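fwd from M.: "can u put these together and see what the complex looks like"

so here's what she sent:
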Amino acid sequence: MRLAALLLLAASANATTFYVTISGLGGEPDYDQRFKMWAEDIDGSLKKAGGDSKVFTMQAPTRDKVQAQFAEIAKQAKPDDALVVMLIGHGSYDNVEYKFNIPGPDMSGAEIASMLDHVPATRQLIVVTTSSGGGAIAALRRPNRVVITATKTGSEKNATVFARFWAEALRDPAADTDKNEAVSALEAFHYAQRKTTEFFDSSKRLATEHSVLEDTGKGEGEKDPKPETGAGRLAAAFPVVRLGANAAAARDPNKKALLDQKEQIENQIDKLKYEKAAMNAADYKKQLTALLLQLAKVQEALEK
Amino acid sequence: MTSFETLRRGLSAALLLSVAAGAQTIQQAETLRRQHRFQDSNNVFQALEKKSPNDPEVKARWGMLFYDTHRQEDEAAKLFSEALELKENYPLALYGLALLAADTYEHKAGDLAKKALEADPKFVPAQELLARLALEDNNNSRATEEAKKALALDPKAVEARAILATIDLLADKKESEWDPKTAEGYETIGHFFTLNRRYEEGIAYLRKAVELDPLLSTARADLGVNLMRLGREKEAYEQLKTCFDNGFLSHAVKNSLMLMDKYKDFETITTPSMVLKLDKKEAELLKPYFESEIQRALTTYEKKYKVKLQQPVQVEVYPNHADFEVRTLGMPGLGALGVTFGYSIAMDSPSGRPPGQFHWASTLWHEMSHVFTLTITGHRVPRWFTEGIAVHEETAVSPEWGDRLGPDEITAIKEKQLLPITELDRGFIHPVRPQQVIVSYFQGGKIVDFITEKWGWDTILAMLKDFGANESTPAVIRKELKIEPEEFDHQFFGWLDTQTKDVVSKFDDWKKSVKLVVDAVGKKDWDTAIKEGVRIRDYYPDYVEDHSVYELLAKAYEEKGDKKAATADLVAYVKRGGRNPDSIQKAAKLLAEAGNKTEAAAVLERLNVIYPLVNPAHRELGSLLLDQGKAAGAIREFHAVVANKPLDPAQAHYDLARAYHLNKEDEKAKDELLAALETAPGFRQAQKLLLELSDEPANPAPVKK
């Protein structure tokens, strides 16, 4: 989506992204090891990506430690910044409240939401990869916040695998489906969701988790978010990790004319794609080819 | 409430009144049953049970109503068991349970029938069942003996006459003095012809049964199922629908009708030599691989068997294993991967099984060999021989393809459980142990290996010809191998012993030690894992299933940083027939990293015949082939990625464009580039190739606002 790409570029100018990855209690060595490994995987991808980011990764912290970390981020963050929180581990839901299992008292969905609310960063993403994560949506959703959960509701209580594939999305170039050298929250969500589905399909097991995304501030979580249907617009414009230096050109004033031209062509392509269903196939192909060739030439000029 | 519970419990006042005028008796219920007034009969039984809850005869006969008229096995079994609780060894109840066991080819069927006869030595149906079971084992002399015992008890015994008639007719006699001339008798004959894979003749007898008694739903259902097996779906559907409309709600009827409703989800690819049916969801991906293997098998077999097939082979590929089971309903050997009915093959799709548990191409070649052996022999080949040839063909096409020597086979060899050649069919039809079916496949395959090695392939062809002339196994062995069957067994067991003695003698040590290696890997004690693994790996080199020593060693070597040794073990695993997709990909990755791209590609090619649903593997193979300038292979692999709903469609189309470009098909390449850029307009590599192929000037043209 063009809108997504523009927001993505705009957001990348001077802002800092704060990343907080928390792995919770496994309850048994196998899960402890798994949660730690996934958190480390994410930590590695974020640090490798570099850029204007601050990466905090916490292994089985207590509630006090988590709160202290968020208090510190709240002090540093500015409204232009972004906050990405990723929870890995087990969760629970008692039909009223979601809880993230950590040493000592667990953290409720409301407590997590409160910590996020105190961080001034306007754009926020929280990824609850735990079991029962769907039970936290109501507490976490806000305008300008993307909420992703590994389960549709709190009643999906089995241990999840979503985190494994979410971590993979942050380092696999295949997750960058629009090839803009950044993986957006929507792209990472689709990647992890698809891989999770394949995991259950190929192992001939009944799927016990169904991930959803909420970014309207008022929804229940959408299984198939698409910007054109209203869900996923914010997530599409939220870069989780950058895979290249796509923002460099945006900062060069000498290339403004070319950038404008690029934007115009991109808008024309979007418009043409929108009209595709009503068009003759040969006309569509001809016009698309012409626009894509123009765009390719502009891109080439931008890179000179 | 299920339909049969409704039938049993849901009392219809009107119907009850219609039969309740006089005193209700078992005879009345049976009369109603014979008149096909099943609901009325059921109501009488229900009333009788209420009146005499401790009468085993009411329970057992009621159970027979459920079995005979509706094949409601669960309800019937429950009533037979209730009867036996009331009276131990009640013959009719024992016989009922024996029938249920016989339908699923369970060995206990014979024991139960014998028990029924002990309780009542004049109980003709149990005696007839013993004849049927013997004939299912192709033991004609015993079947004759048992049938004649039944006729001695009752000269009009229909089933016994039908068994004797079947023996004559299967031997190609034009007529039989035992012709039962009843619908039930022809149903039995039809059952045996289809069991012996002589479907056309079986169908003809089932038609005769239905003509004599249009309300004999068991025969009509059998007719419908067998028509479905041969791919005659329209008539199959009509016959099964008639059963359904007549209230005959067996699992076979319901499931088959539901399956045929799903056929609209299949895509049919027709060529002069094949009809390939694939689920629309995976047709685009699987079509090139299946078409290629079917054609290769046809070409190979037509040459090898010296016969040209007279009609296209139909191959149906089911992604849902339950659908495949319905398609093959009634065949012995649950857990089958493929089944052949004449020119029609049904098999699991690679997606129908967990990755690595199924070599689809091996299954396809196995099943396609049946088409040839059935054709050559006019469907008269004994089961042991056609299965033996099919297993032989799995490894004849590639030494890596066939199933390995498994622990069950080793145990069977060790404990001398293999069957004499003249009794080997019994291991397929009425196994005495759960593993005996799989062991019998192995034994059949090895027998064909042995004959081929010692007497040559032409002897196999001569044997097929003899079987086609309806000669028996002992006669064929004497004629073609010039030895007695007992001598054949002696020579074969000796040959097999020589081949397997090392593995068999070291098996116990291997079994114990492999646990140590698994534990050592679990504890990250790599040195112990390597030391013990290296010691025992070649004790049982064919073991490539879960926790294979090759994979454990590779893991340990990799952790120790010895990639060369890890690669060697993984390649050895692959060459031994290992099927774990992760390990195959790992082997290819290590080979490619070491610069051995040709072998890396060869390793990944193997995955296509095992589990062709892994997009990263297709992409990797496509890239390797592209690097080697093998454009056709690269196109095939990148096409597979595009067809398999890629996570990254832009990249998939771009890769395919590169392969087309290499193959000098630039128009196709441009189409793929458009598809890539339509998804991701800013995709630089795709843009660059599009510019190159379009031969456009570099300067951007102004854009209209």
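replying to her w this: The first helix of chain B runs from residue 3 to 9.
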